[in-house]
Design goal:
mainly beta; Barwin-like endoglucanases; about 325 residues; Secreted protein; signal; eight-stranded antiparallel β-sheet
Length: about 325
Amino acid sequence: MRKTPLLVAAATALTLAAAAPATAATTSWTADLASHNEDDSNIANNDGVVRLAGGPAHAATDQLDLETGIIMFDPRRLPAKSNSVSATVDGDVPADSELAVDVRGLRADGQWTEWTEATPDAPAVLPEASATVQVRMMLTAPYGSTGPAARKLTLTAGNSMAAAAAPKAARSYKVFATREGLVGGTTANGHKIKSRDHFVALPSGKALSPNGKKTYQVKVCAANGRCETAPVWDVGPWNTKDDYWNPKASRQSWKDLPQGKPEAQAAYQSGYNGGKDQFGRKVANPAGIDLADGTFLDGLKLTDNAWVTVTYLWT
């Protein structure tokens, strides 16, 4: 069983401003921070300022006692198809906290792309241009601390020179799976873990589904021939910025590793990164996916942590 914290980024006062790409066709809007979406989790809005609501530390973050909140804005229809969105946040982020803005687009096939972060250095670039985009903010801080605060979020959609190439078939990789357990805990999307629950955790929030929804799912197959399709409802194991299933061009971290190899696996097997995860902890197993008890015990009939084949169905 692995418990994995969400990333804590050092910052003082936040101005998240990713310059929009040079283009003659851009459109800007200000997100409604007072809006309420059914997929919001652990968010409070007082006097127009968004903060963490003080909910329980999430299951994947128990080791560092971190609290995470998500504010999900309603999908926005753009006047023209765009493949990039920049973000400017007026807010404050203490040195022990993080505030991230992520964007996804609605594909031509009706499915959502992965979440892509708009960083201070660059806009979020989507794998294909879309006329409908959705934005979320994720706030993370040590439980009981002041945490980040957002007063205004301005977004600008445009077109980058080239979008990332969309894959032609869902990617599959053999990775080590561990049992998450943690019944009664709360996952990164606000789901309270039940006995014999069915979901998985991946070490990146790029494919985190809203609580109770199956926007992003994986098909997990064990060596015994049993398979289960389950939603991604948590972040972990070990890392939180390791979308190892993506190619080098779009992988968020550890771009020098082969596609399909989790950082934890490389650290455990060959001493990559000094044998440590992103938080400096010594990696004790090569896990690239966590399985909830129902998926582990009932769906796959596993009796111990094991190597499995995972197909990332949204790719």
